[in-house]
Predict the structure.
Amino acid sequence: MRAGRRLYLALSLVVALAIAVALGVSAQNQRAYAAGSGGIAVSPATQQVQVGGAPFGVDILATGVAPVGSFDFQIQYQPSIVSFFGIAVGPFLSSTGRAIFCPPPMIDTVAGTVRFSCASSGLTPPGPSGNGRLATVAFTPVGAGTSPITFLSRANAPYSDESGDPFTAFSFADGSVTVLTNNGTPLATATVTLTPTITPTPTQSVPPTPTPTGIAPPGACGPQVAIAVCPTPAAISGNVGSPLAVDIRVEDVANFGSFSVTIEYSNVIFPSLPSFSEGPFLASSGRPVSCIGPTAVSGGGAGLARVRENCVTLGQPPPSGLAGAAGSGTIGTFTFTPAAQGASAITIPAATILDVFGASDPAGHTDATTITVGPFATPTPCAGACPTSTPTRTPLPADTATAVQTATATRTATRTPTPCGGTC
C-alpha cells in the first residue's frame, strides 16, 4: 500500500514537472513569436528642392521600436524627378554597442527602388529600442514634379529582434519630395547630413571633421583653393575604334566619403556612353565603395552630351567607423570609344564632394582633356613591291694555315744476307 502511494506521488511529480516545462517552453515561444513592434518612417515627410540643386537626404527612422537586432526596408521613388545618389547607415542599430554588418544596397535606377538592410550579431548587449535613424538615402533633383518616397513589401516586417524573430506588429509612414524649377528664387539648400538622431553614450564623441588645407599644392589639377576636381591627362591622341581612357582626379580632399561627377563631351565623336571604372583613391582608407553605372543627364549644348557618375562609401563614420580618404588621387576612369575623327574637349561642368558625415565640401572643377581622334590605324603600304626579309649569312672566321712539323719516312739501306749455296 505504501509502495503504491510512493509510486503514485513520484508519477505525479513527473507529470507536474513536464507540465511546468511545457508551460515554460510555451511562454518562451510566445515571447519569440511576439518579438516586438515598432514603426519605420521617411523623414522629413515632405521637403522642397530645386532642379539641378545639390544632393539632398531622406532619413529612414525607427519609431517606437522594441529591441531591434536587424532591419530591412525597400523604398520606391520617381526616377524622372529624383536620381539615386547614395546611401549611408545611421547610428541607431549599433548604438548599444552591437557589431553590425550591412551588405551593399540593391539599386534599380530604372524602376526607382532601393533596398537596404543591416544585421547585428549576438544576444548581448541588447538591441536598441525607441527612436533613431536607421539610414540616410541621398538623391539628386533632376526634373520638376513631386516624387513619392514609399515603402514596398509592406507585408513583411522591417525589423527582427536579437534572436532573428520578425516583429509581429509594425507600421510604415511614407514621404515625398517636391522638385521645383529654378525661377530665380533660390530655395534653402537641403544638405545631406548624418547627424545622429539619438543621444550618444558619454564615452563616445564624434571628432571634428578634418578640413582641407585650403590651398592645394600644384598637382595635375593645378593650384586650387580648397578641393579641385579635373580630368587627366591634358591631351590624348587616338584612332577611330580604339578605346581612350580619361582619369578623373581629386586633390586636397579630407575625410572623403562620396562624389558625384558630371562630364561633358562631343556626342558626334563619341555617340555611345563611356564606361566607368572605380579608381583606387575613394576606397584607400578601407571603406567599402558602391558605384552606380554612368547615367546620361540633360544640359549639354548642341553636339554635346553629359554623363554623371556617383560613388559612395558605406559604413558608419568615425568614431565607430573608418574615416574617409585624405589627400589626392584618382577617383575613376571614363573610357570612350571614338566613332568619328575630330577633336573633343572633356570637361567637368558639375562636381559634388561629400565627407563621410554627408557634409558637402566646396569643390572647384577646372581644366579639360582634349582628345584628338584620327582615322583607323592601318599599316602603311610600301611603294612597288614590298621587300622581303632575306637571311644573311655571317662569314665564319677564315682558317689560318699553321706550319706543323710532320714526320717523314726515310728509306734506309738495309743489308740483306745472301743465301748460302748448298747447306748453310
Summary: The longest strand covers residues 244-266.
